[in-house]
Amino acid sequence: MASQRSNIVIPMGNASSDRSSTVNNNNNNGPPPSMRSSSSSILINQQVIVQPIMISSIHALNAARNNFNPQLIISQILCLQCYYYISLGLIFQCNYILFGLGSITLDRLFTDTYLNIWSAAGWVDNGAVLSASVVGSILLTIVVEKSKKCLDFSITLFVLHLLVCTLYTGGSIPSMDWWIIHFIGMIIMVLFGEYLCSKKELSDIPLLAL
């Protein structure tokens, strides 16, 4: 019995080595497959979200670059300014025929001598300026064609008109009546121009007959 007990050997060292080998294998294999699949899905979702945003931003930048055309903007400003002065001169000529005003000179266009909100004769020229603003809003639909640009072009027109009037009068500041009339005219031009341009933008596009 003693000899049989002595022959029984317990393999302790092999069991510990097997446990260590299994631990090492688990460490080498990394996280379990479920964690790896969840992390990969998160990365895929991030790519799906980020890529459209990057593409849309790139398209927006390209569209902004294509829409910005300095030559076109300058030509539109000059065209609008010239046609505004032509329409204002024609309205003054009509007032001369209808109301028998004095001589039609550049002073009526570029000075505040004839603009007066407190007299009936002054309102003849005041009405001419306001009527020219209405014509300017119609010109916005032809030259600019964009409702969101009406404010910029209207302000540019009246700022340039102020500079021309200041240079014509030798640097003198216009009177308060001039500022009131032209400010009202600018508001009319912006609001009516935006209305007409938006109506033109929302109009149906005609289809070619096949």
What does this structure look like?
With about 210 residues, this protein is mainly α. It folds into 2 domains: about 30 residues; about 130 residues, no CATH class. The chain is about 75% helix and about 0% strand. It has 8 helices and no strands. Helix 6 runs parallel beside helix 8. The longest helix is centred in the first third of the chain and has 35 residues. The protein is globular and about 60 Å long.
Question: Characteristics of this structure?
Answer:
2 domains; disordered N terminus; mainly alpha; 210 residues
List the helices and strands and how they pair.
Blueprint: H1 2-7, H2 12-29, H3 33-67, H4 70-99, H5 107-110, H6 120-143, H7 150-168, H8 176-201
Helix pairs in contact: 4-6, 6-8, 7-8
**Spatial shape:** globular
Oligomer: single chain
How many domains make up the coordinates?
Answer: 2
Query: What is the straight-line distance between the termini?
Result: 111 Å
Give the biggest sheet.
Answer: none
Q: What is the radius of gyration computed over CA atoms, rounded to a whole number of angstroms?
A: 40 Å
What is the mean predicted local confidence, pLDDT? Answer: 77
In total, how many beta strands? 0
In terms of per-residue confidence, which ranges show pLDDT below 50 for 5 or more consecutive residues?
1-27
Helical run tally: 8
User: What is the helix content?
Assistant: over 70%
Tell me the strand percentage band: under 5%
Please provide the ordered H/E string of secondary-structure elements.
Answer: HHHHHHHH
Structural class: mainly alpha
